[in-house]
Every structure is written in structure tokens, then in C-alpha cells.
Amino acid sequence: MLRSQIKDKFVSGGAFIQKTGRRPLIKWGVILLILVVGGFFLFAPKQKGISAKDFETISIARGNIVEEVTASGKIQPINTVSVGTQISGIVEQVLVDYNDEVKEGQLLAQLDTALLTESKNDASARLSLATAKKKIAELNYARYEKLYKDKLIAKATLEEAEIELASADAEVLTATADVNKAERNYGYAKILSPVSGTVISKEVEQGQTVAASYQTPTLFQIAEDLSKMQIEASIAEADIGSIQADMAVTFTVDAYPNDVFQGNVKQIRLSPTEESNVVMYTVVIDVDNSSRKLLPGMTAFVNIVVHSAQNVLRIPTAALQFKPGVRLKDYVEQQKIELTPSQGIVYRFEKGKLYPIVFEKGISNASFMEVKSGLTEGETIVTEYLTGGRRRK
Fold this sequence. Notes:
Elements: H1 2-20, H2 22-43, E1 55-59, E2 61-77, E3 80-84, E4 89-94, E5 101-102, E6 107-111, H3 114-149, H4 155-188, E7 190-192, E8 197-202, E9 209-210, E10 218-223, E11 228-236, H5 237-240, E12 248-253, E13 256-268, E14 273-275, E15 278-288, E16 299-316, H6 317-321, E17 343-350, E18 353-364, E19 368-373, E20 380-385
Antiparallel strand pairs: 1-20, 2-11, 2-16, 3-10, 4-6, 4-9, 5-8, 6-7, 8-10, 11-15, 12-13, 12-16, 13-15, 14-15, 16-19, 17-18, 18-19
């Protein structure tokens, strides 16, 4: 009896333990999780701050700076003359070809003169007839004038003779003009060079008929002097204000990629053009082509030297692009800074802090900016914050 009661209690107690034993396990599991998370935040390593290894720096030094405006344009002769004809006719001879050197007044081509000769003869004949009529009118007027003085004819008859004489005079003048015109047209049959230079274009061949009824056809183009050329470069309005006459220019062409040619700004044309909503101005650049390497129509890639400075204190433009962001705001020496347009700001890292430095800007290009004051030679400034595993070891 006693043994069975003890057994029954043991069994019932075991059932109680099985029924209620999961709650303490969950409770202890939650407590353990809280201790682990709390311990992580309590004993996790704190951020140590920043060091010089976190930055790319550079030591300020001296050097040269050249500020340039870049553009492109076509190389052209300074003066190109189009030679045409004022009369129509068949081309009888062509005496020059491409690239020929010609002198002023040299015969380039000859038109057929058969019809021109006939026109000249016809005009001469009409002049002779008009001259004869004038002679008769003069004799009649002299005779009628004498008769009028002797009161043998009426004044009206004398006046008629005077009118006939004036008409004969006009016919002579007209005929004379026709003769001069015919002779001039006959002279136009000879196509002469108006300047000394080089034939760069020939638009006519022997036997071709040219018609000058509505406009003067171009037969030749002559470049006056290929030893002197010019570039017509297009400059955007944002850069045109810094361009002035006589500025030095360097340029290259694809035909001679290893050669650098020299020139000077001659003129800034005041008539603008618009390309893709950008206002452009034409800058004319004089070029010495004594070597005859440069040919008309070549594309020149131009650099106009706006300013230059030798052996000046300079910093990389990348240093101006460095700005401490949110990550570094706690490490920047806070100062109230108001910059003027002529000032810039860079940063120096020292003893775990970033210190802003204001300096006076000079000329600049894509790589460097001149420092007029505010920085010293040898001073170290920050150019970049190294992130993403780029930290220096």
C-alpha cells in the first residue's frame, strides 16, 4: 500500500515536471539572448577615428601653368579669288591645271572669238554709218543756217536741221558705245589671272560651253599666297571673353600628329552663329605656312594660350574637389567661412582633425590652379578620402 502510493506520487510528479518544464527553458533562452546582445554593444570595439592613412595627400610645390581655350577649325588661304567669265562661249583652250603657279595677268584660258569678232565688226560698221549720217546732218545744218541768215527759209526749217544734227550725234555716241562694248567682250575671251598665286580649283575643260546669261560661272579658284594661311576657329561664348588679338596659338593637324604648329589670333568676328543652342564666334588665326605642309581644308585642333605663369605655387584641381561629407563632419575643425569668388578652400589633416584653409586663386587649367596667397610651399593638403578598402597601409 505504501509502495504503491509512493509510486503513484512519483508518476504524477513526473507528469507535472513534463507538463511545466518548457517554460523555464524559454525564459532562460530569452535571458541569454539579452545578455549576448548587450554584451556585443558593451564590449564591441569602438571607432578609433581617422588617421593620415585614410587620405590621399599632396605636398604643395611650384611649377608652370598654361590656361588655354581649345577649338577646331578649317585651314584656308588668306585670299582666294574666283575667276569667272562675263561672256558666253566655247572654251577653246585651257592653259593651266591644278596646283599650277600663275602670275598676275597670265592667260588661263581662251574662249572662241568667232562670234565676238563678228559683233565687233558689226559695231564698227554701225559706227561708220552713224558718223556718215552725222557728217550729212552737219552739212545740212550749215547750209540751212546760211539760208536763214539770208532770210530765205523759215526758222522752223533751221530748227529741224538742228534736231537732225543732234540725233546724228546721239547715234554716233551709241555706235561708239557698241564698239567699245564689243571690243571689251572680245577682250573677255581671254581669261586672265587677276592675282599671282596657286590654282586650287579648275572647273572647266577644253571644248566646254560656258553660259554667263544669269550669273558669272566660276572657271578657276586661285589662292593668292599659300605660304600664309589662316584658321577660322569656332569659339563658344563662354570662352570668347578671354580671347584677344595677337594671342599665341598652337595647333595640330591629323596629317602630322607629331608636329605642333604656331599661329596668332588676328581677328574676332562680331557676327555670331548658333550651333546646338550654343552661341559661337569665329576667331581668325594667322598661320605661317612657309614649309607648305598645311593644305587648304585641313582640320586644325587649336589651343589658344589665354594666360601663362612660370614657376608659381600651384595645387592640383583635385584638391578643390575634396569636400568632407557626413562621415567626416565630426572630424572637421568647425569655422565660419565665407568665400569670395577669388578664393578657394582646401583641407589639411593634422592630429586627427581636418582643418580648412582659405587661399587666393590665380589662373588655372584642367590640372592645376595657381595659389597667390594663403598656402606655402611644402605644405601638405588632402586631395581624396580613401574608402572601400583603399586605405593606405
